[in-house]
Amino acid sequence: MNKNSMKDKRIGIIGAGPSGLAQIRAFEALKEQGYAMPEIICFEKQDNWGGMWNYSWRTGVGKYGEPLHGSMYKYLWSNGPKECLEFSDYSFDEHFKKPISSYPPRPVLFDYIQGRIKKSNARDYIRFDTTVRWVSFDENSKKFNVILDDLKIDKTYSEELDYLVVASGHFSTPNMPYFKGIENFPGTVMHAHDFRGADQFKDRNILLIGSSYSAEDIGVQCYKHGAKSVTLSYRSNPIGIEWPEGIKELPMVTHFEGDTAFFKDGTTEVYDAVIMCTGYQHKFPFLPDELRLKTKNNLFPDNLYKGILFNALPQLIYLGMQDQYYTFNMFDAQAWLARDFMMNRLTLPKETERRMDIDKWLDRNNKLENSLDNVDFQSDYIKDLLSLSDYPHFNVDKVAEMFKEWLQDKEENILTYRDKTYQSVVTGTMASQHHTEWMDELDDSKERYLYQGEQEEVLQDNL
């Protein structure tokens, strides 16, 4: 390919979270090899990058009245080993200059995400406080027309683009079910999307509806920070681990009467608060019907070739739309492949052949029976992506082993699994033990996490 053949092309990226930043980083990696870059414009609704990892105290709407993107909360610690999400071109060692534990808190992971992108000129491509209002595709010119709002100056304008990358995530539009009588519940009712920390639930009896990772994590966090009791209500299957005294699982709520919840097994309990951990919708209100990805949260959404290219129109690319075991490194693998397609370094098979490949993955997805199967499925998916691009390879099988160990660790003890350590597949470094056990660590600041242990060692040496 002529290294200058792309310079007149224009690429739009919706979202500057981990997926959107991965796409920018993929282009920057090629630029370092001497390729002329297309024009890249990233539209970010928030005033900073990081997507979900960019914590905000706000709920409901943001500063300019737009639906709030973030579902991040205080005291959130990684709920999987950091070694399973490590960038293979930017290690934790390179960023922190020392070993750290396997389960860092949010500010530490956010710092790591920013570290890689700050090495590049990413900010030059990003228009912050900018939201996408509408996208159309012209069949004659084969270009997208994107209508945008600059929220800061309240100005509407449009851009014409050759490729469009949707990296807006799928954990920001809450799925909020109704239960008879809940409108008369006298306490707090919220979705996990609006949960900002466990402080307000100290000494309270809390009901979490759902059996997802968010229900598990918010439930354990509330328990850790002093909730009187935590109940998780499941629709089909309980999480099924051995909970400590003070946390329990019950089948689905049927209805409410005042502050009393009624459950399918006939149990009734009184609660102070209800948190809906009932998932999120894939929602793209800026896309017309024929371009919109329509899927539930699963490991392989239909109509996406290689899980990213919209089969009916491959110029439209979706990143990070899968249910996720792998995160940052999967977004990278997707972004590198998407970049190669956009740069004409990857030739696609015909639409019918792409459809057959999609069906092959869907068929396997439909036969998955448990979490271990899910890990193997997503591991094989990532190997498939890595085989098609020059993203620096990492030992996917070793990461899959770590995920399986992690699942076992959680089953053995939901309160102590974050104290375990793992070895990096990128550098071989063994994670250090955190200076404080997770259940006793109530401060999630970067400063305490990184430096408290060192301060204690200095104190000890001086005694």
UniProtKB/TrEMBL annotation:
The name of this protein is Trimethylamine monooxygenase
Give the protein family: Belongs to the FMO family.
Record carries keyword GTP-binding: no
Query: What does this protein need as cofactor?
Result: FAD
Q: One GO MF term, please?
A: N,N-dimethylaniline monooxygenase activity
Top EC category: oxidoreductase
Keywords (A to Z) from UniProt: FAD, Flavoprotein, Monooxygenase, NADP, Oxidoreductase
EC numbers for this chain = 1.14.13.148
Any keyword NADP? yes
Q: What is the lineage of its organism?
A: Bacteria, Pseudomonadati, Bacteroidota, Flavobacteriia, Flavobacteriales
Q: Which Gene3D superfamilies match?
A: FAD/NAD(P)-binding domain (3.50.50.60)
Recorded hits in InterPro entries, A to Z, give: FAD/NAD-bd_sf, Flavin_mOase, Flavin_mOase-like, FMO-like
